[in-house]
Design goal:
With 362 residues, the chain is of the alpha/beta class. The protein has 14 helices and nine strands. The protein starts with a helix and ends in a 5-residue tail after the last helix.
Length: 362
């Protein structure tokens, strides 16, 4: 009886300690932590809606949350990153919509005023006297050409763009790194509808466990649990021999759907009287432990760019070979895929010079 009582006492002490630590963890997250730490350790659905950078969507897995604001990074009422704009295009305005993922969104730049699209608009207006130009940042972190196609069809084209710039690369390579046979024309090998129940019971309900797990990962919960298909094989996977496996997946999943998505984007633009500009995608291979430095990813990037160049030549479409002109100087990059503010300015200068020299502007 004494031994049983001792064990029960120890168990009770353990449970009381665990409950105390859990209570302290909840107090820290909800009352003491900085806003950044609170977001890192919270369950995404429990955050106030304006603090959620993206929102589930019925036709797209997610979209940028309208009215989102975090410091100098914000979305307008229409869900585009940048200043407020009207849904109806004002008379006399030449509107440019840039479609893409986080490199268009300019993920690594915290201040809206220093993003690539904003700097491009400022450059065109001030240095090239194109005062009627308006540039819309249609980038959404994580988007690939499938999602930009749908985004243009149901959201972007309502903005009545005169010119649509299509800027994709890395995220379409992800869609090829899916289990053999899962590379589908509808991208279901890469994406699934938003799954709120994606987190484990412990991560959903035990604050202390959630803090420990996210400190270990060095980040907050990302989009991946909610929208990634079970067939997706991530860049840091230990799936067989990674190098050999990923090379094989590139062989088995040629970028045929990327090509078709670009053709469909072109068809929508043509039907609505908008010009389209294709671009290649640039990266910096010099960041250690960034997947942009992996040989198999760089092969994928080059293959996507080759599709862009070949399709533009075949169809006679305007195409800017940005990858051939963007500097890989490390000082311009925040990581292997995203430019910093200085890099965003360099990018805007390159695009601005090309647009002015082309016949795409008024």
């Amino acid at each position: 009886m004494t031994r049983l009582a001792t064990r029960l006492g120890k168990l009770g002490l353990f449970l009381a300690s665990a409950l105390c630590l859990e209570g302290l963890a909840r107090l820290y997250v909800h009352k003491v932590a900085s806003p950044e730490r609170r977001r890192q350790f919270s369950v995404y659905e429990n955050l106030p809606e304006h603090e959620r950078r993206v929102t589930p969507h019925p036709y797209l897995a997610y979209v940028n949350t309208p009215h989102f604001e975090r410091g100098a990074k914000s979305h307008n009422a229409l869900g585009w990153r940048g200043p407020e704009t009207s849904l109806d295009k004002p008379e006399g305005v030449f509107r440019i919509l840039i479609l893409g993922g986080s490199t268009t969104y300019t993920e690594a730049v915290a201040d809206n005023d220093h993003t690539f699209p904003v700097q491009l608009q400022r450059l065109l207006r001030e240095e090239y006297q194109q005062s009627t130009i308006e540039v819309i940042n249609g980038g959404v972190p994580g988007y690939n050409s499938w999602e930009s196609l749908v985004n243009l069809c149901f959201r972007g084209i309502t903005m009545e763009p005169d010119l649509v710039i299509v800027h994709h690369g890395a995220n379409d390579v992800h869609s090829r790194f899916v289990r053999p046979g899962a590379y589908h024309s509808d991208n279901r090998g890469r994406r699934q509808a938003w799954q709120w129940e994606a987190l484990s019971w412990a991560e959903e309900n035990v604050t202390l466990y959630r803090i420990m797990m996210r400190l270990k990962k060095g980040t907050h919960v990302g989009l991946e649990p909610f929208v990634d298909s079970p067939d997706l094989i991530g860049p840091y996977s230990d799936y067989e021999d990674p190098e050999l496996a990923f090379e094989k997946l590139l062989d088995e999943h040629p970028p045929i759907h990327f090509r078709n998505n670009l053709r469909n984007i072109s068809a929508i633009c043509e039907e609505h009287g908008a010009s389209m500009l294709l671009t290649t995608w640039a990266w910096c291979p010099d960041f250690e432990n960034d997947y942009a430095g992996f040989d198999f990813y760089q092969r994928g990037f080059r293959e996507m760019n080759a599709v862009v160049l070949a399709l533009a030549k075949e169809r006679g479409w305007p195409c800017y070979d940005f990858a051939a002109r963007m500097s890989q100087e490390k000082a311009l990059w925040a990581d292997g895929r995203h430019v910093n503010a200085e890099g965003a300015l360099a990018k805007a200068q390159l695009f601005g010079a090309y647009l002015v020299e082309s016949d795409l502007l008024p």
